[in-house]
TrEMBL record:
This is MtN3 and saliva related transmembrane protein. It holds the Pfam family MtN3_slv. The keyword Hydrolase does not apply. It comes from Thalassovita taeanensis. One of its GO terms (cellular component) is membrane. The chain crosses the membrane at residues 6-25, 37-54, 60-79. One of its GO terms (molecular function) is sugar transmembrane transporter activity. Keywords: Membrane, Transmembrane, Transmembrane helix.
């Protein structure tokens, strides 16, 4: 049961960033996004990914691979469309 809760949390945690990533690439509007906040969150999910790999926890690994990808897209858009 705990594994299913972990995967469900991973899916929800990832899905929440996808609309933001899609919107910034479609509109090219990143004025209201904080580069510092997004870089800090990218660092956070990267560290969670490393932690998940270290303890071989697949819900953490899967969630954070997806979150790192979404955050890289957001940060890249912020840097490209200043």
């Amino acid at each position: 049961m705990a594994l299913y809760i972990g995967y469900f949390a991973a899916i929800l945690g990832t899905i929440c960033w996808l609309p933001q990533a899609i919107q910034v690439w479609r509109t090219r509007d990143t004025k209201s996004l904080s580069l510092t906040a997004n870089l800090l969150f990218l660092l956070t999910v990267t560290l969670w990914l490393i932690y998940g790999v270290m303890i071989t926890d697949w819900p953490i690994i899967v969630a954070n691979i997806a979150s790192v990808s979404a955050m890289i897209a957001i940060v890249a858009a912020k840097l490209k469309y200043k």
